[in-house]
Amino acid sequence: MAPLRRSDVPQEQVWDLTHIFADDAAFDEAIQKLNRARKPLSDHAKTLGDSEAALLSYLRDRDVVMEQIQRIGAYAMLSFSEDGADSRNQTLMAKAQSVSVSLMEELTRLQNAYLALPFETQKAYASSTGELSTYREHLLEMVHMHEHKLSPEAESALAALGEALDAPSTIYRTATGADLACGTVPDESGEEFLVTPFSIMVRAETSIDADFRKRAYDALIKGLSLHHNTLGATLATEIKKNVALSRLRGYSSTADMLLHDSSGGFPSDNVDVAFFERVPELLLKQLSPHMQRYARLRAKVWGLPKLRFCDVKAPVIDTSNEKIPFAKAQSLILDAVAVMGPDHQEIVRRAFTEKWIY
After folding, report:
1. Which residues contact 149 (CB under 8 A, 6 or more apart)?
2. In degrees rounded to 5, what are phi and psi of residue 185?
């Protein structure tokens, strides 16, 4: 059986991106509008240090721009995730990345202008109790960034290279989402199953058929092995990039930079490295023994000599013959989240009725 195409899926079972933009023409119009917003945004550079009101005006205009960047990026990314090999989706991604880099250059220039203000002024803004306090977390991030900032020329150069610096993730996404060919294998019923990283995750890993899981997983490994040099070089490039940037900015480690740097225009996680490193340590020491015991139990239930990664998500109870219609699944999920209260249940209901889900 030929792989199911996106166009073959019933429309009530796919997400509705018209909530973001009515169509591609509206997407293009939003990009043009965003480009026109660059000049008014740049005008704030001269007044950032004049008063709290002047800074507040800039931050509110910045919010509008950031919201539009997010909408444009979401529309492009969600379209790309439907079919990464489709030329229309690739074009949307390219347009979104281009306008995002352009605006990030401008935001970086404005950020440089703000960081050039007297440090005492920056701390005063961050401790404001007026309307500016709405942006306290962002302003505190700027205070933290002060010691890691580069010269305005260096910051502008890095912003201009934004798209190139994002190349490793772009290459990985394109390779695994569009170019990776893993072939087909027989599924539980003997029909052809197209193996991709995504189809493995949503279908094969949760199959009751251990032989099918193994066939699909082996095909994925074989397909990935044909690209391991390219993907390995891509990962190495990403690592080297982050190491270089962390050293340039004077962070104690790459982890410290990734957890605290907000130079790209988006807020940082602002998580202490010690806390971040403590999580996997706790998992390995306290949760790992129980998970290993659970893995051995699953292998025993399945009659497998060894539990492979493709067996981890497989159900212990065979429900393969139970076919649940889409409408019934909606009802079950809504009933399940009822315990979390009517507000949460209403959000989940909207996710179905307004088609937020894939």
Report:
1. 112, 115, 155, 249
2. -135, 155
**Tens of pLDDT along 46-68?**
999 999 999 999 999 999 999 99
Decide: residue 144, CB within 10 A, 0-12 exposed, 13-18 middle, 19+ buried: middle
Whether 181 and 196 have beta carbons less than 8 Å apart is answered as: no
Distance CA 289, CA 245 (A): 38
Which amino acid, 115? Answer: L
Helices (runs of H) and strands (runs of E) counted in the chain: 17, 2
Distances (CA, A) of 249 to 30, 114, 148, 254, 263: 34, 17, 5, 10, 10
Cα 267 to Cα 289: distance, rounded to the nearest angstrom: 36
Select from 270, 247, 54, 249 the least CA-distant residue to 141. 270
Q: What does the mean pLDDT of the chain come to?
A: 87
How many CB atoms lie under 10 A from the CB of residue 95? 17
Confidence of residue 267 (pLDDT cuts 50, 70, 90): low
User: How many of the other CB atoms lie within 10 Å of CB of 195?
Assistant: 26
pLDDT in tens, 97-127: 888 888 888 888 898 889 889 999 999 999 9
Which residues lie closer than 8 Å to 89 by C-beta, 6 or more apart? 76, 79, 80, 82, 83
Chain segment 329-356, per-residue pLDDT in tens: 889 999 999 999 999 999 999 988 888 8
Alpha helices (H) in 84-189, listed in sequence order: 87-115, 119-126, 136-145, 152-160, 162-165, 167-174
CA atoms lying within 13 Å on the CB side of residue 312: 8
Task: Show the 3-state SS of 319-332.
Answer: CCCCCCCHHHHHHH
pTM over 0.85: no
| pLDDT attached to residue 108 | 83
